[in-house]
Amino acid sequence: MTNKLRAWLVFLIFLNGYVSLSLELVVLRQLGFYVGSGAVITSIIMGTFLGFMSLGYFLGGARRVGGVKMRRLLCLSFLVIAALTILVASFPLITRYFMWMYRGGITSGVVQTFIYSGLALSVGPFLFGFNTTLLSRMLHKYNTNYTGNIMAWDTIGSVFGSLATTLILMPFIGVNHTVVLICLLATAGALVCWRRWWVWALCVAVVAGALFINSDLYQRTHFGIIVNNANSTISVNQQGDARVLYMNGLPMSIYYPKTGKSAEYINYVNDNFIYNMPTDRVRRILVLGAGGFTAGLDDKFNDYTFVDIEHTLKNVSEKMFLGRRLTPNKKFVVQDASQFLKNTPLEYDLILLDVYSNSYQVPESLITAEFMQRIKSRVAPGGVIVMNMVSSPSFADNYTRVFDNTFHSVFTHNTTRQVIGNFNPWDAMGPANVVYVYYNTDNDGRIYTINKSPVIYDRY
Question: What are the structural domain ranges in the chain?
Fold first, then answer.
């Protein structure tokens, strides 16, 4: 085996490993905004990926191919992978898929993920396994002791794909451009295998399609997307008199420039918990989940800390959503909410938790009793915790009932639950904004009974 042939085969094995891991991570990132990133969702995607890859290993070893025919098979395989990357990882197409799912009445994230995995994550992983087996057979033809090197280069490619995609590419060039890069690398593999005019033509066509549908201009024009990084896809759209801030395809915040009003639940929080605060001293206010920074927007007196993992939110909100700069009393911290609560030594007079954007996309770690204990530990004596939940006003589903149980397991006393807007408790209805409130005041846990009822002393 010549050094040139060996380098050619090793490069393709490395490239195959890189593209497979990079594509898997991009898919996990894109789907996470619609179905979450919990263990169940991740296991479905990874299980499908690995299952079809294993099938590719089997069939790649079963076929008797070699020489020129093997090179053609590898070329076509890389071309199909490049084309499928556009279909399974481009945000506009994924958005369409979930729109069709909801219109068809399929709202379960698990079911949506199973269907998506079966349709979109079968052929690509199969071809990754198929390619690995074919390339391994070609190396074994010349050197039967090359097994360790084959596994090593495939793993090295996967490691590079994992680290480069998550640490460099998605944060700095954006997810849409990362998808284009994956297509480019796959077409490069096709051209290394077989350089013919029709291969060049197909490669140009695939890359052109990837560039078009993943271009900043297309995504901004058709979806209003202005940020597309490792954490978030953000857009701002004008809808009548209102501006709507979307994150990952879901409405996160609404603002009416003419009136200064916002979403109904934010208006409720502003009017009842913020704008009527006494002015005898400056109070600390913590907002977990910055959204469009509409909480306390017109309050220039108290001290605010907004916490969110998306570092572009403040800049986007000021320039394109609010159309004005935040007042100096508002600080923005880019950090995970749970980690912030763990590390901060401060206690806050008001904590607003506003991270539950959609009943089908719930940050699972932020609805646990352990997380609520962290929030409770950071509220000052006499302070208030306000949580905005998207759930059933009439406790019509298990999720709402279990969350309510979880909340009251931590906040056992001094709580209220306010449904925002009108609702009919006798009619099955979809999720709504439900505000949970906890008041951090002393409570000895006494109750009134027929035997002991000193109510007149407590009341007066």
Answer: 3-223, 252-450
